[in-house]
Amino acid sequence: MEICVIGAGYVGLTTAAVLADLGHSICCVDTNIEKIKQLKRGEVPIYEPGLSELISKNKDQLTFSSMIVENIQKAAVIFIAVGTPSLSDGRTDLTYIQSVVDEIAKAISSYKTIITKSTVPPGTNENIDKMLKEKGVDPKLFNVVSNPEFLREGTAISDMIKPDKIVIGKQQDDQKSLSILKEIYKSITAPFIVTSLNGAEMIKYTSNAFLATKISFINEIARICDKYNVNIEDVTKGIGTDPRISPHFLSSGIGYGGSCFPKDVRSLEYSALDKNVTPLLLQAVQAVNQSQVNLYIEKLSAFIDDFSRKTIAVLGVAFKPNTDDTRYSPAVSLIEKLSSLGCIVQTYDPKAQLPFEKVETVSQHAKLETAIMNADCVIIATDWDEFKQLNWLKIKALMKGDFILDARNCIDPQVVRETGLTYIGVARS
Ligand SMILES: NC(=O)C1=CN([C@@H]2O[C@H](COP(=O)(O)OP(=O)(O)OC[C@H]3O[C@@H](n4cnc5c(N)ncnc54)[C@H](O)[C@@H]3O)[C@@H](O)[C@H]2O)C=CC1
Ligand SMILES: O=C(O)[C@H]1O[C@H](OP(=O)(O)OP(=O)(O)OC[C@H]2O[C@@H](n3ccc(=O)[nH]c3=O)[C@H](O)[C@@H]2O)[C@H](O)[C@@H](O)[C@@H]1O
Q: How large is the ipTM?
């Protein structure tokens, strides 16, 4: 099938590469000309395990272009995968979606299935349909479908090839789209969940909000465990065997980040308030998450009474391991907070770069060893595998002080303590 994927970001590139691998003919378009130039040269602008290889394997049926209208015209199916970031009041910024709708309206001269993969608030797909009609596009020439994406960064390709479900939201009178979607995904084994446009949008937000709730819940429990000298892992192990609870997504730590949970929980809160529903739980989930970085700073301040000019090594900049994405990374918030307290911060991440302009007190190091050099304290801020296997005796020899703050509960306190270093964590007795 001839498909145009609009947006060459984490979701767009993964969608384009996976659909090409399934045998479709794909053109992935983006307004970012530099990105398209890079992709045409065979360089993948983001780090996502396996993506580069999959793109290069499928180069015969996967092209990249910045000619958006022309490539929409050629395709029978359009996937929208542009960004939907937060506005300052929590609403979703739909300007990128709006400009895609404008491009589609200019391009349509034959029938298109328009599939929204971007995460958009309830009502948006109905609105896309309405906007296209208002722009004079013949309703017989298109159908709008919602097909939200559930991939995780770091495991994006396998999540897309082996999803636990494929959610399709469509209009009641749309008799065409379901069979087209089934044809597109025919090599993927997963149940189809078919619902309305608003229903599919709500499934996506509910999924992210529920997962974020699990994280804030366990982070709150960890605060209580900390006061009663209880190990949080014992508690998660104890409750996780109950299939109604499950052991997944119950790792406590510095809080959730990334380009989706923070913005999507906020957006759902906004959608609720917009209809006069007070989403007390969603508000609490965000309040807990926003205070996690401070909780870890408070923990540290029991050991360090004056932060000014202290050298702190922060291991991890990305919002989670196996990605270079730093959007809403709690590690970045921690670095900024430490810097504002007067610390000298030395960071290291295997893939991610600090997302802000150089400041005198914050440095990024290409090697873990140089980041640790002369540090009063080492903080594990992202749970990369590399940080779980450190030789603490070697680390101790490079440090000036002896504090290790584990903000991801990913290292064994005992192993650290045996070297004479001081292990600091929340609810890790
Ligand atoms: N990153 C993730 O893990 C997941 C993201 N999502 C959702 O997917 C959507 C995309 O997310 P990401 O891929 O992370 O975003 P991204 O920011 O990595 O990529 C978006 C791309 O769209 C391009 N773009 C913007 N306006 C355009 C236009 N008018 N025409 C063509 N290209 C345009 C941008 O230049 C950028 O390259 C968002 O709605 C997000 O919430 C859903 C599931 C997972
Ligand atoms: O809509 C999206 O963009 C995506 O958001 C998340 O995926 P992602 O943001 O890539 O990463 P997760 O693995 O979900 O982690 C999110 C954050 O929660 C944190 N986390 C995760 C799990 C856990 O137990 N504890 C915890 O603190 C991670 O460190 C990270 O900061 C969802 O898991 C995906 O299903 C969804 O498609």
A: 0.99
